[in-house]
Amino acid sequence: LGPRLNASGRLESALASFELLTTTDFMRAGQLAQQLDVQNRQRQAITKTMQQQAEEIAMQEDPQAYLLFAAHEEFNSGVVGLAASRLTETYYRPSVVAAKGPDETRGSCRSIPEFHITDALDQCKDLLVRHGGHAAAAGFTVKNEKLPELVTRLKTIAKEKLDGKDLRQTLSADMEVPLADMNFGVLKHLAYLEPTGYGNPDAIFVSRNVKVRAFRAVGSDGRHLKLTLEDGPALTYDAIGFRMGGMARSLPPRVDVMYTLEANEYNGRTSLQLNLKDVKPSDVPD
Question: Where are the CATH 3.10.310.30 domain residues in the chain?
């Protein structure tokens, strides 16, 4: 539901999402739900194409840059943030993807813990119409004639901050626990920590030497990984790994998993689910 509610605002207007949440007309709700589903499919197609184009542009311009930058006239300004996120996830570099208009360019930035992207934009404020954000994400508007200077300055700042650093993503967990200890009681206590988000992230756990009982790639293009894990007699857990579908080709029989714990509701049944952050063979060191 979340991505569909979000898609309308990215492509057109969020009013359809608002109306769906507030209407008392059953038929109208059905029409709006179908409309939002179509828009979400459009958003997915646009995002996939933009991600490929942004990666090509960034790699062609400077594949060794400490900051990746891609701007194009055909980019959709409502989806540039998603494309920037994928670049950062793939290359572990701060990334900027921007939509060029007739007079101004609107960009969205995503970054890594080693580089405060909004501080970098603050150092370029004389070039910008407006900007704002936080350490990990930001947005800006710049006049087209000042765009080349902005790109040069941001890449220079990134080089000064990141040169010499070991830029490899490090994943940290809050606790290592046996998977068999995870239950609805734990989930209830985790709810006391909400609301979670930037500055108060979800609790992340690691469980080791878990048996892989079943696995398959899911999603329209097999991008996601669905697992059934076993830890002890008759103790099985469902797990979902978004954008981990490629791992379905070579999963070992026992794995270490990093995850957040959540409830999954489907067909009136509620079950525990692991939202995977990483998976590795149990016999491979951290």
Answer: 2-162
Architecture of domain 2-162: Roll (3.10)
Q: What gap in Å lies between CA 149 and CA 69, rounded to an integer?
A: 12
Q: Output the tens digit of pLDDT for each of the chain's 286 residues.
A: 777 887 676 667 788 888 888 988 889 989 988 888 887 887 777 778 888 899 999 998 788 899 999 999 999 888 899 899 989 998 999 999 999 999 999 999 999 999 999 999 999 999 999 999 999 999 999 999 999 999 999 999 999 999 989 888 888 999 999 999 999 999 999 999 999 987 899 999 999 999 999 999 998 778 899 999 999 777 899 999 998 998 988 899 999 999 999 998 888 888 899 999 999 999 888 8
Tell me if the domain spanning 175-281 has CATH number 2.40.50.460.
yes
**Residue range(s) of every CATH 2.40.50.460 domain in the chain:** 175-281
For residue 27, CA distances in Å to 34, 89, 117, 268 come to 11, 41, 45, 22
Measured distance CA(148)–CA(133) in Å, rounded? 21
* C-alpha–C-alpha distance, residues 121 and 123, integer Å: 5
In 25-136, the DSSP E strands lie at 68-72, 95-100, 104-110, 128-133
